[in-house]
Design a protein that fits this description.
homodimer, Tetracycline Repressor, domain 2, 12 helices, about 70% helix, globular, disordered N terminus, DNA-binding, Tscrpt_reg_YbiH_C (chains A, B)
Amino acid sequence: MNDATPLEQRAVSRSAEITRAALIKAATAVFAEHGYEGGSVRLITQRALANQAAVNYHFGGKEGLYREVLLVATKTLEQNSFLSPEEVDARSPEEALRLYLHQFLLPLVKRDRVCSYLRIFAWESVRPSEPFNAFVATSPLRIFRLAERVVRRFLPDDAPAETVTFTTLWLAQQPMFFVREAERLARPPFSLKFDDASLERLVDTLTSLSLRGLANI
Amino acid sequence: MNDATPLEQRAVSRSAEITRAALIKAATAVFAEHGYEGGSVRLITQRALANQAAVNYHFGGKEGLYREVLLVATKTLEQNSFLSPEEVDARSPEEALRLYLHQFLLPLVKRDRVCSYLRIFAWESVRPSEPFNAFVATSPLRIFRLAERVVRRFLPDDAPAETVTFTTLWLAQQPMFFVREAERLARPPFSLKFDDASLERLVDTLTSLSLRGLANI
DNA sequence: TTTCGCTTAAAACATCCGTTTGAATTTCAA
DNA sequence: TTGAAATTCAAACGGATGTTTTAAGCGAAA
């Protein structure tokens, strides 16, 4: 196994890298669709045009492959984010809030890998898998860190920690809901299809609601 | 099979009813814990102290049993609700909003069957199962109907349908998030344990946020 | 009491799962 | 070119799943 002997220099052939990459790509799609437990190695290797044993050979097993997917997912999400923690503090609270919502609602129209990554996290929010728990135990997810940063721009400095936590969670899950439920919302009775224009309207609505609430609509 | 011959009068012994009820009760717990696909017939029958074949005999299979659970769940949720659509219109918008949030955050402290039912719906919100889709295709879930009713108390009558939908979804999923994530939120780094007092504070916070938004905290 | 249909029971069925095996193949440095 | 390591492959393993089968147990009517 590759992972078991990282100390000595190993010759990694070109085709091996291709197989690894194909497995990760296929695993991302499969885990996004079926979750960790529901995503089978057979389906992954089938889509990657690879042998079943390749998962064990390259990643030490299904769990190792999933860890790799999570690693790529978080890294990509961090890089593709145009909203950094510093950016939050540099802008006005209103702008920061709007940018935050726009950032995490973007997958609604950009149906690419980023959407798959968020779908994996959506699965984990319902039934956290053991690999995922170990993964996020080290550092909290970016979306929560950013949400807390935005929230702190609004709350007074002496706000109770519990209030900060409630409010952060409240804000963090607002865009996650729409991304996770995108497929269901596209069907009746909601029938919400998102394009650039309707995304802007959704960002407007959520920004207004988060900012001034229902009473001031 | 019972379900296959509903027309003619059937003699149903006492133990048969007991087995049926035990299966539904056990299935509710198992499906709430593992979801539809992940909940196994063996585990259900084991907890119900019944034979595996009983599921096929009484319900025609796993899917039939799940349909029965969904039926009981929705009925119970309708009955145990102290907030009816008429109640929403009878109260002030602010009161209606607060009652709505309180209603659907109640499972945080009342860890009974109702909580299991909401957990099942939480599973379905990530990966809707075929039986569930067929089930809700007839009528939208109560929580959405109530949320829309509350939202309409705030929005002007000539508000665009899309805005109403956005706002309804925004409101509906706020309590669902906390109920679904209760177990995770109880662990670090959040460590939120809910009792009657903290539930009241959460209701207060969410009501305030939904009503007046972040800017007026 | 006998009989018949409803109900339960244990076992086996076919299929899927993640993983392991051991040989065949490919790769690359010597 | 050679040989050892890296990689792939088909097959099988042990276990879990939903379902079916076959037989036995049971209650009430004849």
